[in-house]
Amino acid sequence: MTVPILEARNLTKHFPVKRGLLGRGSDVVRAVDDVSFAIEPGRTLGVVGESGCGKTTTAKLVLHLEAPTSGAIRFEGRDLQTFDRGALREYRRSVQAVFQDPYASLNPRMRVGSIIAEPLVTNESLPAGAARKRVAHLLEVVGLPERSADLFPHEFSGGQRQRIAIARALALSPKLVVLDEPVSALDVSIRAQILNLLRDLQSRLGLSYLFIAHDLAAVAHMSHTIAVMYLGKIVEIGNAETVAATPRHPYTQALFSAALPSHPDEKRDEVVVTGEVPSPLAPPAGCRFHPRCPHAMARCSAEEPALLPEAGRLVACHLYTGVRVSVGAAAR
Amino acid sequence: MSLLLDVRGLSTHYVSARGTRVTRAVDQVSFALEEGETLGIVGESGSGKTTLALSLLRLLPPAARIVAGEVRFEGDDLLRKPAAEMRRIRGKRIAMILQDPMASLNPLFTIGDQVAEPIRIHEGAGRRGAWVRARELLRAVRISAPELRVREYPHQMSGGMRQRIVGAIAISCEPRLLIADEPTTSLDVTIQAQYLNLLRDLQRAHHLAMIFITHNLGIVAKMCDRVAVMYAGRMVEGGPIRKIFNAPAHPYTKALLESIPRLGDGRARLTAIDGQPPDPANPPAGCAFHPRCPRVMDHCRQEAPPELVVGESQTARCWLAADRR
Question: Domain spanning B3-231: which CATH class is it, in words?
Answer without folding.
Answer: alpha beta
